[in-house]
Write a structure and sequence with these properties.
Length: 205
């Protein structure tokens, strides 16, 4: 798999617009977030998802993370219980991924999965990108499965020639994955301890 990869700087005035155009047309992007670098594809493009699984050498049973710009858009694809909504409103945008049951539309775009992890990132570029695209995106850390996630542009550039665009955001602010909480049913379960301190979550979950 060899592609001509466009490389741009995050601070370029139209960087998020160029990236949005490529993702909306079915391309695969590498984007900087406040946690780690992520691959990004249109959540409604099944072929793009399939290509990303191949690039990652990822088991098809392992879902991607859904990113969106607001809670209302997230509700199109996942069911957010009232108790969980308070957690989402408190920590989004932020370094917290929450797992919810999928809606009918969510099942369609995720290949019938019963649940999906969702995050609203606390990163200006990503929020501008999501606003520009207008639909949720599927993301996953930039790495081969079971390898370390890319935390800086040098590591992200290992996929030059494989994806359609790489956005250079330098070093990620936290350089560590998000904290993940399964909120499908109560009691909630912490799936992964990430860069959001779980002590901050304790009184909410």
């Amino acid at each position: 798999m060899c592609r001509r990869t466009l490389k741009i700087l995050e601070q370029d005035s139209n960087s998020y617009k160029k990236t949005a155009e490529i993702i909306k047309s079915g391309g695969i992007a590498i984007v900087p977030t406040e946690t780690v670098y992520g691959f990004a594809v249109n959540a409604f493009n099944i072929e793009s998802q399939k290509m990303l699984y191949k690039i990652k050498d990822r088991n098809l049973e392992r879902p991607f993370i859904l990113m969106t710009n607001n809670i209302e858009n997230a509700k199109l694809l996942v069911e957010i219980p009232k108790r969980a909504l308070a957690v989402a409103e408190k920590f989004w945008p932020g370094q917290l991924t929450l797992i919810f049951s999928t809606t009918k539309i969510g099942k369609i775009v995720s290949g019938g999965r019963k649940d999906l992890g969702v995050r609203i990132p606390d990163n200006r570029f990503m929020l501008n990108l999501l606003n520009e695209i207008g639909v949720p995106i599927f993301t996953t850390s930039v790495n081969l499965s079971n390898k370390k996630s890319a935390k800086n542009i040098s590591e992200a550039l290992e996929f030059d020639g494989i994806v359609d665009i790489i956005v250079d955001g330098g070093q990620c602010m936290f350089s560590f994955e998000s904290t993940v909480v399964d909120m499908v049913q109560f009691p909630y379960v912490i799936i992964r301890k990430g860069c959001l301190d779980i002590r901050k979550l304790s009184k909410y979950i």
